[in-house]
Amino acid sequence: MGDDKLNTVMVIPTYWGREKAIGWQEGDAIYDHPTPLDEEGTLQRIIESTAILEDTDYQLVIIGVSTAADIEPQVERKVKEVLNRSSGKVRAQLFSHSHLRKVKQLLEKKGRKDLARLLSLRGYANVRNMCLFAAHLFSAEVVILIDDDELFHDPHFLAKARQFIGKTLQGKPILAVAGYYVDAEENYLCQIKKEPWMTYWDKNGIMNRAFQQIIGEEPRLKETPFVFGGNMVLHRELFTRIPFDPGITRGEDIDYLINARMFGYPFFLDNQRSIKHLPPPKPYPLWRRLREDIYRFVYERAKIASQKSRAGMTRVEPQSLDPYPGEFLKGNLPELIYKSNLMLAAEYLQQGDPAASQECLRNIYLAQFDATPKNDPFDNLVAMQKSWSQLMEFSASEKVSSELKEALFEEASP
User: Fold this and answer.
1) 3-class secondary structure per residue, the chain
2) Parallel, antiparallel, or unpaired for β 172-173 and 168-169?
3) How far apart are CA 405 and CA 399, in angstroms?
4) Cα atoms in the 13 Å half-sphere on the side-chain side of 268
5) Distance between CA atoms of 97 and 64, rounded to whole angstroms?
């Protein structure tokens, strides 16, 4: 461990939806900003920005994700078109829905339908797991997770990504290293004006406090309570053991950090490894974004609260994740949800939007009666972790691995 020439696979998921005039339909998967099929999106931009990287000793895999089953063939064609016209230094491999079907068929043929069930391209956490699985098929020792709404701006990004991974810090193995996001002006702090309704939900202010402590201060490498899903470096010893949890609808990156900690793996952050994050504007209203946060924090709080003593596992306390996300994972979360939604509801009424105000009140109801997971999230994680390890071990066996590679990957010219 600690060799900067570890076999490295960079994986970029890209999300595509129906044509713009059609838009989202009932039953379609929900993502922040899937690219309509009749638009070009940001995939070509991120691929071509890899040209700035000095190190080309890595493999590049693109995960093509469709919001709906009936447009999967069009999505695959579209992504192939983008890959074929993208001028990057490294040849890109495509993994999409047709490839997933082949993987599942092969696993089922070998009598491992139980493992095939773990693989899906629906939902953020499942897509991240497919990123790990695809990297594993390429015998990755290190996987770099990137998103398609980003832009490389540091020629030394790859060297930094491999600099610490696999080594130790104060006796702790470094198997997960986060980088961070900067905006177009290279700021790493959230540039959002504080509104009155945020009095009890100052998420951006709390995030900035965490960013200042972890990103803005020395030493360069330190343990972190947060992570950015589009700038993560994971070692094989971690990603073959710990999966993303499909039970969470969003915020799967920080949830993964919590999962890793529960199994005894700390996450570190390198405050010199940044990537530009240039997402399209979020098309959703504030009440819906607040609802999404409610579901993720209620789920994570339930997972932490349902921990049990198990050999080889570490108890994670909310305060160990302070200031962010820890301040949203404590016993006062229901009170924060209640007060912030009442204040936002009042603001909507003042603006003459009673429908949005009603949705805020519904947030309070959903937090109490729908967001709480029906099953024990800790027990589910423990069970999935065991199955995930079996999947990774089974698919790494020489015969299965070669059959999977042979059946799967298509190349796209750079």
Assistant:
1) CCCCCCCEEEEEEEEEECCCCCCCCCCCCCCCCCEECCCCCCHHHHHHHHHHCCCCCCEEEEEEEECCHHHHHHHHHHHHHHHHHCCCCCCEEEECHHHHHHHHHHHHHCCCHHHHCCCCCCCHHHHHHHHHHHHHHCCCCEEEEECCCEECCCCCHHHHHHHCCCCEECCEECCEEEEEEECCCCCCCCCCCCCHHHHHCCHHHHHHHHHHHHCCCCCCEEECCCCCCCEEEEEHHHHCCCCCCCCCCCCHHHHHHHHHHHCCCCCEEEEEEEEEECCCCCCCCHHHHHHHHHHHHHHHHHHHHCCCCCCCCCCCCHHHHCCCCHHHCCCCHHHHHHHHHHHHHHHHHHCCCHHHHHHHHHHHHHHHHCCCCCCCHHHHHHHHHHHHHHHHHHHHCHHHHHHHHHHHCEEECC
2) antiparallel
3) 10
4) 27
5) 7
Q: How large is the C-alpha radius of gyration of the chain? A: 21
Neighbours of 87 (CB within 10 A): 11
pTM of this prediction? 0.95
Residues 221-273: tens digit of each pLDDT: 999 999 999 999 999 999 999 999 999 999 999 999 999 999 999 999 999 99
Q: Which of 43, 292, 302 is nearest to 148 (CA)?
A: 43
Who's near 93: CB < 8 A, 6+ residues apart? 59, 60, 61, 62, 138, 409, 410, 411, 412
Residue 174 · residue 258 · CB < 8 Å:
no
**Are 146 and 229 a contacting pair, CB within 8 Å?**
no
Domains of the chain: 8-192+204-282+377-412 (3.90.550.10)
Nearest to 307 by CA among 261, 344, 351, 343: 261
Q: Residue 373 class from Cβ within 10 Å (0-12 exposed, 13-18 middle, 19+ buried)?
A: middle
Residue 409: its pLDDT value, please?
A: 57
State the virtual CA torsion across 33, 39, 43, 45 in degrees, nearest 10. -110
- Cβ atoms of 323 and 206 within 8 Å: the answer is yes
